[in-house]
Amino acid sequence: MQGEMNWYEGKKKCESIGMRLPTISEVEKAYESGLTKRWEQQTGSIWSDEMIDEYAFIVYVHTQNVFIHNKKTWETTVICYKDNQ
Fold first, then answer.
1. How far apart are CA 10 and CA 55, in angstroms?
2. Contact 49/27 with Cβ under 8 angstroms?
3. Which of 9, 24, 31, 49 fits 5 for a cystine, CB–CB 3.0-4.6 Å?
4. End-to-end Cα, the chain, rounded Å
5. Is the predicted pLDDT of residue 68 greater than 70, yes or no?
6. Which residues contact residue 26 at a Cβ distance below 8 angstroms, ignoring those fewer than 6 apart?
7. How many domains does the chain have?
8. What is the extent of the structural domain holding 72?
9. Which element (helix H / strand E) includes 48?
């Protein structure tokens, strides 16, 4: 967990350490495996790498709900993934 930052900062931070923001599918798999239980102690939502046009997706880890958020300058938690994680 990298802390709270906006989408642009989060994407840049993950890339700087050779990782990336997770896809919605990866967050769903983490939820199903119970991994998000550990995240829930520190956050309620995380940025996803997925977008539609200029709208970025936020995933609520408590409920696995996906929310489209158009303010990429809004701060929420960043979790970085690497391929085959």
1. 15
2. no
3. 9
4. 14
5. no
6. 81, 85
7. 1
8. 3-78
9. strand 45-52
